[in-house]
Amino acid sequence: MITGSTGGMGEGIARRLAQDGASIVISGRRADHGERVAREIADMGAPCIFARADVGEEADCVALIRATVERFGRLDILVNNAAATPVEPAGEQSAELWDSVFAVNTRGPWVCIREAIPIMRQQGGGNIVNIGSTMGYRGWLNRLAYATSKAALLAMTRTLARELAGDRIRVNWVTVGWVATPNEVDLRTKTHGDGATFLSEMNSKAIMGRLETVEDIAEGVAYLVSDQASHVTGCELNISGGMFVHS
Question: What phi and psi values does residue 119 have, to the nearest 5 degrees?
Answer without folding.
Answer: -65, -50
